[in-house]
Design a protein that fits this description.
By secondary structure, the protein is of the alpha/beta class. It has 7 helices and 7 strands, in the order βααβαβαααβαβββ. The chain has a single domain, classed as Rossmann fold. Strands 1, 2, 3, 4, 5, 6 and 7 form a 7-stranded mixed beta sheet that branches.
Length: 210
């Protein structure tokens, strides 16, 4: 039986991220995020991990690092676990995008999973590569627990597929920084839960059956 811990990275630097579109934009964690990453690692210390996979973005690798180190592992970067590529919108503020590209902004706000960003990706592309990454990770560790440190969009895509949710419903899945969702498979049947569990900031350790 494979068990995956899907973890959204810790909070990036507020001054670099606030009010700004970032997917592929490579941001560091802020001080709060670094502290939360350490607390996350300590909360998961008693769980035996076979591997820690990560998006190659710094905010994800800096979250994965303490967790991997505590288990004597190195994070395994995988470009398929990166956040959505917003293309020409990367690094721009939402106010700027709304003012200069109102039609694209309106479509993004109304039907976000149907938009293909100029020189970037669509949700369908993200979903496809995220599921390919999960399949590879499951094949590499068919009987064990692996952690995946990634981004909100990637976690939502994976959970939505396992739950059979339509694309337009993915934003009903709340994704907090440093929160953990658990997936298990019995043969090819996915079992989901808990979802978006907070295990840092003094919250109780994640409870999973052995």
């Amino acid at each position: 039986m494979t068990r995956l811990l899907l973890i959204r990275h810790a909070r990036p630097q507020d001054e670099a991220a606030r009010g700004r579109c970032y997917g592929r934009l490579d941001l560091d964690l802020g001080a709060d995020g670094r502290r939360a990453a350490q607390e996350l690692a300590q909360s998961l210390e008693q769980i035996e991990l076979a591997a820690v996979h990560s998006s190659p973005r710094r905010r994800a690798l800096q979250t994965a690092g303490p967790l991997a180190a505590l288990h004597g592992l190195e994070p395994i970067p995988d470009e398929r676990l990166a956040e959505l590529d917003f293309g020409d919108l990367e690094g721009r503020t939402y106010d700027e995008i709304a003012a200069t590209q109102p039609d694209l902004y309106h479509a993004w706000m109304e039907t976000p999973t149907e938009v293909e960003f100029p020189n970037g990706e669509s949700y369908a592309t993200l979903r496809r590569r995220a599921l390919e990454a999960v399949a590879s990770i499951r094949e590499a560790a068919p009987a064990g627990t692996a952690a995946i440190v990634t981004h909100g969009g990637v976690v939502r895509a994976i959970l939505a597929d396992c739950l059979g949710m339509p694309d337009e419903a993915i934003f009903r899945l709340r994704q907090d920084y440093c929160a953990v969702s658990v997936l298990e498979w019995i043969e090819d049947v996915p079992l989901v839960g808990p979802v978006n569990a907070r295990v840092g900031d003094g919250a109780p350790a994640l409870s999973m059956r052995d």
